[in-house]
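Translate sequence into structure tokens.
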Amino acid sequence: MSPRSFVKNLTFQSNDLSQAKNHTGSIEDIAVGFVNKGGIMSTPVLYLSNIGRVTAKFTPVLPVYITSDYEETDIVRGQVDTPAMWPQDLTTLAQSTTWNLARDPNTGHYSIDHA
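Result follows.
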């Protein structure tokens, strides 16, 4: 089935509970993703295959890790062995948000504060 006809037969509701209903009459694959501002293609973050109907609560959380195990341009390809110091629910943030990352020189501890 083409993406265009699939879109016509899919309803999506979003509040605290996200619900996708497949009205195509057949089993389909569904992906949830994000589109960058000005972009036309989405980047899938959740992929479900062979779906007739699915109901899921999806909360995008951005975790911040502080570690010296990686260099600035490294790509993290697996589980990070450092606990997240700042998990942030992205749905609670404004569309444009600025934060300051600071290191206390006396203790070596990091903090993140709203700018």
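Note: Confidence is low (pLDDT under 50) at residues 1-8.
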